[in-house]
Design brief:
411 residues; alpha/beta; Nucleotidyltransferase, domain 5; 2 domains
Length: 411
């Protein structure tokens, strides 16, 4: 089955699009990544999305309009990744779209809720493909936090026979999946959000450079700065870090408002721009390491994905914090760190149309495993149904990466 996975993360920097092929034999999935690209936002859509996110409060009209515009943007990303791979849309069996999270609320005492936009109906209409979208709410309906969901991929693909692994995604928000070895049958998979990933660093760079830069490319600013340990220790007192897993977070707790506060505090202490970015980078590294020490057990390897995997200063700081473990990027497993989440949602879409649960209750806090997402039929819907009915019915217990032939481009 040919599937396109789509996601725009907390950083809202681009739409990640992965074209994958999944085949199923017995209890094993084989996955081939045919193409991957990061498709840019156009026509002011990125600004409209940011205007909906905390600390902003978008109007109902703005949410509705942006939902439709994002549907067009996600459809364009799907068409681009297929065209670049020379695969006609008629050959695509399914599109799995995470969409764009604009609000995620799991604060105790508040209504547990999450909203991802990017109209699936528009994607289906523009491409002719059946679309699976809106993955998080079903998990929340059974008491989960709706996040993290990527542990489904981690568990199938990255669990080692003997090594204890922490699979750390550093997108806008950081999240970890703790994978005891397959031989440790009495130890469960654990997953949760560790706190800020790139979001504070990115927002700080944007504010400190007047918008001329949007992220710390190659860690140049943080590498030229000095970490302020006093501020770092102060920031580590944030109440999120004392919450026990399962837990998740977002820009509601770590966004431009918080970045501006941290910048103000740092300037009052005499820090320059490079020092501020260096201290925020160290904050991400230390918060990840502190979560490991507090909630996880033995760790032999840390496998890093997301944009943070491309920041050498962040990786160096994380290795220093976790001196008893080896910190690697997912490239070491033959997997492009940038593509992981788009691949993960392609896999979840595949699970959904086959009727298989793809949340990991130990990760989200859900009462049970459930089938995720809503299905929007495309022109190929009846053909897809026939294919699914004729397919292997046994849920997979592992996945093999048959080939990884991605192109990481700007579309």
């Amino acid at each position: 089955m040919l599937i396109i996975g789509l996601i725009s993360g907390t950083s809202v920097d681009a739409i990640d699009a992965a074209l994958v092929e999944i085949t199923h034999s017995d209890k094993t999935l084989q996955l081939t990544l045919h193409n991957f690209l990061m498709h840019p936002f156009e026509g002011g859509v990125q600004g409209r999305v940011r205007a909906l996110m905390p600390p902003h409060t978008g109007s109902t009209a703005a949410v509705c309009e942006t939902n439709m515009l994002l549907g067009e943007a996600f459809a364009a990303a799907a068409m681009a990744v297929a065209a670049q791979a020379n695969v006609p849309l008629e050959k695509i069996d399914l599109i799995a779209s995470h969409g764009q999270t604009v609000y995620h609320q799991v604060v105790p005492g508040a209504v547990r809720s999450s909203l991802q936009i990017g109209a699936a109906a528009v994607i289906a209409e523009r491409t002719g493909c059946t679309v699976v979208a809106d993955f998080r709410l079903r998990d929340m309906a059974v008491g989960g936090e709706g996040a993290p969901l990527v542990p489904y991929l981690d568990t199938l693909l990255l669990r080692d026979k003997e090594k204890y692994r922490a699979v750390q995604n550093i997108g806008g928000i950081g999240n970890v999946t703790y994978l005891p070895p397959a031989s440790a049958t009495n130890q469960a998979v654990i997953a949760f959000d560790t706190g800020p990933g790139n979001v504070l660093m990115d927002e700080a760079v944007r504010l400190l450079t007047g918008g001329t830069q949007t992220f710390d490319e190659d860690g140049r600013m943080s590498g030229a700065g000095k970490v302020d340990e006093v501020l770092l220790n102060q920031w580590m007192q944030h109440p999120f870090f004392s919450l026990k897993p399962p837990k998740s977070t977002g820009r509601e707790q770590w966004g431009p408002g918080e970045a501006a506060q941290y910048i103000q505090q740092a300037k009052q202490q005499g820090l320059d721009a490079n020092d501020i970015v260096a201290t925020l980078t160290a904050f991400t590294a230390r918060s990840i390491a502190a979560a490991y020490r507090q909630y996880l057990g033995q760790i032999n390897e840390v496998l890093v994905s997301g944009g943070g995997a491309r920041n050498p200063v962040l990786l160096r700081l994380l290795q220093a914090e976790l001196h008893g473990s080896t910190v690697l990027t997912l490239d070491a497993q033959g997997l492009n760190p940038d593509a992981k989440e788009a691949v993960a949602f392609a896999l979840m879409g595949y699970a959904t149309v086959h009727g298989w649960p793809s949340n990991v209750p130990a990760a989200t806090g859900a009462a049970q495993a459930v089938v995720l997402g809503h299905i929007t039929p495309g022109a190929n819907y009846r053909t897809l149904l026939t294919q699914v009915i004729q397919a292997e019915v046994t849920p997979p217990s592992r996945m093999q990466l048959v080939e990884f032939n991605s192109k990481n481009t700007d579309g």
